Amino acid sequence: MSYASFRARMYADRTGQFISSCEWSRLMRAEAYWRVDETTVGRYWVSTVWLGTNANAHFNAPPLIFETMIKTSHRDDDSGTFMDYQVRYETEAQAKIGHVAAIEYAKALMEERVVEDFKSVIAAALAQAQLPP
Fold first, then answer.
1. How far apart are CA 16 and CA 90, in angstroms?
2. What is the end-to-end Cα distance of the chain in Å, rounded?
3. Structural domain boundaries in the chain
4. Among candidates 62, 113, 57, 104, which has minimal Cα distance to 123?
5. CB within 10 Å: which end of the chain, N or C, has fewer?
6. The pLDDT value given to residue 78
7. Ranges assigned E (strand) in 21-96
8. Rounded CA gap, 21 and 131, in Å?
9. How far apart (Å, rounded) are the C-alpha atoms in residues 115 and 121?
C-alpha cells in the first residue's frame, strides 16, 4: 500500500466515511462529537468514544474507529488507572452495545462475580443485537 493510500484511510468520521486529517482535527475539538457515552458504576468509569483514527492494522478491513475502556476511578480523578479492558469497534451501533456490555462487566466486578473473559461478554451482547463482532 502506498503512503498516499495509507493516509487516505487513516481517519474516518462517526459514519465510517474517510476524512482528511484537518476534518478529523476539527471534529476532535468537540466533545459532543467524540464522546459516545460514559457511565460510572461504583468505582469504575466506563467510557466509549469515537477515536476517528483507524486502529485496524489491516487497512483492507473496515476501520476500527470507536473504543470502550474502563478506568478504576471517575474520569476527573487522575489517581485511577485504566484497566486491561479495551475494545474497539467498526460502527457506532457496535460501540453503543459494547458500552452496555462494559457496564455489565463493571457491575460484575463490583459484585465480585467471576467473569471469565470480558471479550466473551462483548461478543454475546453483539450477537444478541444481531450485529457482527
1. 8
2. 26
3. 3-128
4. 104
5. N
6. 61
7. 35-41, 44-50, 66-71, 82-89
8. 29
9. 8
Question: What would the grid cell of residue 47 be?
Answer: 467510557
Mean pLDDT of each 10-residue bin along the chain, 133 residues long: 60 94 95 95 92 79 90 66 82 94 88 70 73 57
Smallest CA-to-CA distance from 73 within 93, 48, 46 is with 46
Cα distance between residue 98 and residue 133, in whole Å = 10
Q: What is the pTM of this model?
A: 0.80
Q: Which residues neighbour 45 within 8 Å (Cβ) at sequence distance 6 or greater? A: 38, 39, 70, 71, 72, 73, 74, 75, 80
For the chain, the helix, strand and coil percentages under 3-state DSSP, each to the nearest 5: 35, 25, 40
Amino acid at 119: K
pLDDT for the residue numbered 68:
95
Looking at residue 120, what is its pLDDT? 73
Return all residues near 33 (Cβ < 8 A) that are at least 6 apart. Answer: 14, 27, 50
Q: Give the three cell numbers for residue 118.
A: 470480558
Q: What is the predicted pLDDT for the residue at 1?
A: 55
Q: Tell me the three state secondary structure of residue 53.
A: strand
- The per-residue pLDDT for 20 is 93
